[in-house]
Amino acid sequence: MLPVCGDRGKQVKIEGGCFIRIPGFFKKELIPVPFPKPVVGNIRQVEFFKRNQEWFMSYSYNVLCSPSPIIDGAIGVDRNSVENVAVIANPLNGQVRKYGIDMAGLKKNFGRRRANLQRKGAKKALKKLKRKQSLRTKDINHKVSRSIVDYASEHRKAIVLEDLVNIRKGKARRYVEKSQWSFYRLQIFISYKAALRGIPVRFVDPRFTSKGCSKCEQINMPNGKRFSCSGCGHVDHRDANAAFNIAQRYIRHHGDWVSQTELHSANTVGHIGGPLNQRVVRPTQLESPGGAR
Fold first, then answer.
1. Residues spanned by CATH 3.30.420 within the chain?
2. Closest among 65, 85, 89 to 152, alpha carbons compared
3. Do residues 180 and 132 lie in contact, with contact meaning Cβ atoms separated by under 8 Å?
4. Is the Cβ–Cβ distance between 191 and 60 less than 8 Å?
5. For residue 78, what are the β-bridge partners?
6. How many Å apart are CA 95 and CA 269, to the nearest integer?
7. 3-state SS assignment for residue 56
8. In what order do the strands lie in the sheet with 43-51?
9. How far apart are CA 19 and CA 16, in angstroms?
10. Between 15 and which of 19, 146, 204, 293 could a Cys-Cys bridge form, CB atoms 3.0 to 4.6 Å apart?
11. Is the predicted pLDDT of residue 285 greater than 50, yes or no?
């Protein structure tokens, strides 16, 4: 891989609105590139990489965030490494949606295939399979994050996530390692997609979101994916119960949080840019970073 920093337009230059020029590599030669969204400033970074004997280029650039819509509530997002990738809950209407496949099962499937290739000593096939698994995981996270942001935008809701900074410490580490899915990667995908749409993203303390009852707040120990409250008798799916808790915890702790400052705070993120992943983006996709062959 050959990375090139834009260096504020000194190393990577925009020509004619639809071409870029990299003097250090190609002197005056112009490379045609699609810009799905208008460029703000300069190209941030360009990378060249070779796949199947062909060279590709990916690039990232800044774009402006959309104005925030009038937000009238929040949805909670519970991220998982077993069963669905994410479960969202809307406390206003009680709606629950599940996104993504069972990543733990996906990992087991790829693990069996790797074991067979290792016994055969197929090193090239192993390398190809590893890359395929990585791309599949990224693709799922992109689709899940897009679905979550689409729902929030359609219903004019803020997105509330658990603050999982220390998720890989203590008991949670064993839970996360059941799959090769990154909590942080999905968070990043949700954050930049939401910022582009003007949707606020907020965080809450993750403690007891899975054990607390979303109806009466009493602490109970879930049985697998089944949650049953011994206090009020509420029965629910563990992930749905957690998603309701996440949304309600933010709303409850912030009182009348639908203020003008809060409504438009998504714009404080500023310009969204920089390489978020290493995949090639086709011209029809309206996201940054972009890519060209």
1. 74-105+138-270
2. 89
3. no
4. no
5. 87
6. 29
7. strand
8. 2-5, 43-51, 54-61, 290-292
9. 6
10. 19
11. no
Cβ atoms of residues 158 and 90 within 8 Å: no
Cis amide prior to 289 (ω within 30 degrees) = yes
**What ranges in the chain are assigned the alpha helix state H?**
23-26, 103-120, 123-155, 171-176, 183-197, 238-254, 260-263
DSSP string over 61-115: E-BPPPPPP----EEEEEE-SSSSSEEEEETTTTEEEEES--HHHHHHHHHHHHH
Q: Tens of pLDDT along 82-107?
A: 788 999 999 988 999 999 988 878 88
pLDDT > 90: percent of the chain: 47
173/12 Cα distance (integer angstroms): 41
C-beta pairs of 118-123 under 8 Å, 24+ apart in sequence: none
The whole-angstrom separation of Cα 202 and Cα 214 is 19
Return left, alpha or beta for 176; rule: phi > 0 is left, psi -120 to 50 is alpha, else beta.
alpha
Pick the CATH number of 74-105+138-270 from 3.30.420, 2.60.40, 1.10.10, 3.40.225: 3.30.420
Residue 273 has pLDDT above 80, yes or no: no
176 pLDDT more than 60: no
